Amino acid sequence: MNININYEDPSFQHDEYEKVIDRVCEEAALVYGLGPNAEISILLCHNDYIHQLNKQYRNIDRPTDVLSFALNEGEDDGYDGPDTALLGDIIISLEKVQEQADEYGHSFERELAYLTIHGMLHILGYDHMEPDDKAEMRKEEEFILQRLGYVREGEEL
């Protein structure tokens, strides 16, 4: 899998962020059979930047933690298999990562891993609008996070 990580602000560039994102995306590629030609782009940004995108694309006038833009959005089948090259874009607010890590009492790395897999699952067609869909998506998120050792404080592997 090809993982392109970009930064709205060059000062955000950090090897540890990239390691977390790479691990999560590679694990998702393995678990969901994405293949070596699959490509995802990830942008790490400020709250102001993701706020603008959230307002423009979702008509929600506030910052959010993660946005996903699947290139095959609206198609019934979701991911088309290993021959598909471009999956889509994930935008993550690093300010929200820190806020939510503090709020939920876990590490920055765990929250970044969570938002990365959350965004990846949206790219792959998962949603959380209905309670059953939300439960399924949460199960998939936790499955990937536990495989990588990103557990919440007090949780066992």
UniProtKB/TrEMBL annotation:
Its main location: cytoplasm. GO terms for cellular component: cytoplasm. Its EC number is 3.1.-.-. GO terms for biological process: rRNA processing. Zn(2+) binds at residues 118, 122, 128. Single strand-specific metallo-endoribonuclease involved in late-stage 70S ribosome quality control and in maturation of the 3' terminus of the 16S rRNA. This is Endoribonuclease YbeY. It comes from Megasphaera elsdenii CAG:570. The lineage of its organism: Bacteria, Bacillati, Bacillota, Negativicutes, Veillonellales.
